[in-house]
Structure formats: structure tokens, C-alpha cells
TrEMBL record:
Chief place where the protein resides: membrane
Protein name listed in UniProt: Sugar phosphate transporter domain-containing protein
Residues spanning the membrane: 18-37, 49-69, 81-104, 160-179, 195-214, 234-250
Keywords assigned: Membrane, Transmembrane, Transmembrane helix
The organism of origin for this protein: Escallonia herrerae
Whole sequence portion shown: 96 to 417 of 417
Domain of life according to the entry: Eukaryota
Annotated Sugar phosphate transporter domain residues: 18-308
Membrane-related topology note: Multi-pass membrane protein
GO CC annotation terms, alphabetical: membrane
Places the protein is found: Membrane
Keyword presence, Cell inner membrane: no
Length: 322
């Protein structure tokens, strides 16, 4: 990590820069594929709890394969490690399922605009827990709040459940980050991807039983309806698979990127990712966007850049994933 907040891209050697560019490229591309196929499935099979569980299941299976074939060194797992992960995994589950519920109710672009407000939640909750932030950080969250509000009131697909889902997702991921920092202090030797792998496995066990309870009774009927709508079952399975595999892949790439860059660069990269995804999904799904909505989204995104710059002056930079 770079404590001065100077982007590693600026100081990296050409080889390293190229390597980083490739990882970022994969991360963005995989995220776009995830967002498109996730929404395609939800459009005809509106059961986000099952789809989110399946995505966590895919990630769990993927990690077990990587570990069994020694493509990734398996971490030493102790009881205390699993206990330390219970909190972060719970909040990861909340963050993921609520984002998926939001995706099922509104345009993907709107969910991502609201998700770009994650720094606001980070600053507010970290302050409540005793952290202090300089004035520029507090000022930087004003355009985020204003931009998101403008985008929300002008959103064509607006839906209260969709807005709440995205907001709760922000709370979930911020608490995941806060809890990871606190409870995983003594497991620093576990690398990011292995940590993410275990969080995914635990999240699956948290989510799936609740998913059965929330919407299980509608799955069979919903499945027949989806197949009727799409005509070809194979296409439906392909979309579901793509959403599951790419959900894991983009997270894996983001952890690979995080190993190489500072939290600050990561947080700027994550915001850029949302811009790319917003544009891509608006084009693919041909969502109508009102001019004021685009303006609000741009102001919110710009606010997250100001936030990154303001937190660069703080010792440990911006957001870091668990
Ligand atoms: C998730 O549930 O993880 C969301 O789908 C996407 O969140 P992210 O864009 O912050 O990774």
C-alpha cells in the first residue's frame, strides 16, 4: 500500500503498469458481463434470493476447485478463523442480497448510482464508531448525497424497494469492511482471495436457507414461466451460469488488483467501474435516462472522486475490501 496516496500507476514500472491494466481490464469486463446476465435472468425470473445464492454457490465451488487442484494455496483454517469471519460474512451476505434485490426492481444503472454513495455510509458509520475525518472529507460527501438524491427523484424506473435495496447494500458492505478490519487483524497472512473464498462459502450457508424461506415456494412456478418466456431452456441455464461464474470472477480480479494497489487507487478504480457499468447497461437495456438523472449521477460520481482525494490525506486512504 502507498501511504502517500500516490497512485501506483504513476510510479509503477512499465511491466507492472501493463499487468495492472490487464487486471483492471478483466475486472471491468467481468463486472459488465455479470451485471448484464444477472439482469437478463432477473427480468424473466425475478427471484434474486435464489440467484444470489447460486452466485455464492458458484464462487464456493470455484474456490474449492482452485484449492483442490493447488491452483491457489489453501489457507490454514482454524476454528478462530471461521469465528472471526462470521461477522464479515454476514454483512457480505446482506450487502450482496440487497444489491440483488435492488437489481431485480430497478435499472442496473440506478442501483450502481446509489451504490456509488458507499463512501457516505463509510464516513458516517466509521465516525459513529470513533473514527474522525477532516472537514474536506465531510464536504466531499455533500455532492454524493445531492447527486444521488437528484438521480433518485428523476429515475424512470424508480421503485422504493429498489432504492432501499441499494442503500442497505451500502450499509452491508461498509460494515463488512469495518468488521473485517477489526476481527481479522490476527489473520493478516491469509491473502485477499482466500479470505474472499471463505467469506463466499459462509455467505452461501447464511443466504440459502433464508432464500428458501423468502421465495422458495415460488421457484418451480417461476422457473416454468421463465422457460415459457425465453423458449430455450439452454439459454436460460447459460445466462444463470454466466451470472454465477462472472460474479465470482470479477470479485477475484478485484482482489488481485487490490493486492497490487493502495486502497485509494482501488476505490477510484471501483468508481470508474461503476461509470463503465452504468454506460454499458444503459446501452444494452436501452433504459431511458432523463437529462437531470444523468446530471445527478455525474455529480454523485464526481463526489466520490473528491472523496477519494480528500481521504488520500488521511493515513490509510480510501475504502478497502475485506
Ligand atoms: C454485489 O452484490 O456484490 C453487487 O452485485 C455488486 O457490488 P459491487 O459492484 O460493489 O461489487
Amino acid at each position: 500500500a502507498n501511504p502517500d496516496g500516490v497512485s501506483e500507476i504513476e510510479v509503477a514500472k512499465p511491466n507492472k503498469t501493463l499487468q495492472l491494466a490487464v487486471v483492471f481490464g478483466f475486472w471491468y469486463f467481468q463486472n459488465i458481463v455479470f451485471n448484464i446476465y444477472n439482469k437478463k435472468v432477473l427480468n424473466i425470473f425475478p427471484f434474486p434470493w435464489l440467484l444470489a445464492s447460486f452466485q455464492l454457490f458458484c464462487g464456493s465451488l470455484w474456490m474449492l476447485l482452485l484449492w483442490s487442484f493447488k491452483l491457489q494455496p489453501a489457507p490454514k483454517v482454524s476454528k478462530s478463523f471461521i469465528i472471526a469471519l462470521l461477522g464479515p460474512a454476514l454483512f457480505h451476505t446482506i450487502g450482496h442480497i440487497s444489491a440483488c434485490v435492488s437489481f431485480s426492481k430497478v435499472a442496473v444503472s440506478f442501483t450502481h448510482v446509489i451504490k456509488s454513495a458507499e463512501p457516505v455510509f463509510s464516513v458516517v458509520f466509521s465516525s459513529l464508531l470513533g473514527d474522525s475525518y477532516p472537514l474536506p472529507v465531510w464536504l466531499s460527501i455533500l455532492p454524493i448525497v445531492f447527486g444521488c438524491s437528484l438521480a433518485a427523484v428523476t429515475e424512470v424506473t424508480f421503485n422504493v424497494g429498489g432504492l432501499w435495496g441499494a442503500l442497505i447494500s451500502n450499509v452491508g458492505f461498509v460494515f463488512r469492511n469495518i468488521f473485517s478490519k477489526r476481527s481479522l487483524q490476527s489473520f493478516k497472512e491469509v491473502n485477499g482471495l482466500n479470505l474472499y473464498g471463505w467469506i463466499t462459502i459462509l455467505s452461501f450457508f447464511y443466504l440459502f436457507p433464508v432464500a428458501i424461506f423468502v421465495e422458495g415456494s415460488q421457484w418451480v412456478g417461476g422457473y416454468h414461466k421463465a422457460i415459457e418466456t425465453i423458449g430455450k431452456p439452454a439459454t436460460f441455464y447459460l445466462w444463470v451460469m454466466l451470472s454465477g461464474v462472472f460474479y465470482h470472477l470479477y470479485n477475484q480480479s478485484s482482489y488481485e488488483a487490490l493486492d497490487e494497489i493502495s486502497p485509494l487507487t482501488f476505490s477510484v478504480g471501483n468508481t470508474m467501474k461503476r461509470v463503465v457499468v452504468i454506460v454499458a447497461t444503459v446501452l444494452v437495456f436501452r433504459n431511458p435516462v432523463r437529462p437531470l438523472n444523468a446530471l445527478g449521477s455525474a455529480i454523485a460520481i464526481f463526489g466520490t472522486f473528491l472523496y477519494s482525494q480528500a481521504t488520500a490525506k488521511k493515513k490509510d486512504g480510501g475504502e478497502k475490501k475485506s
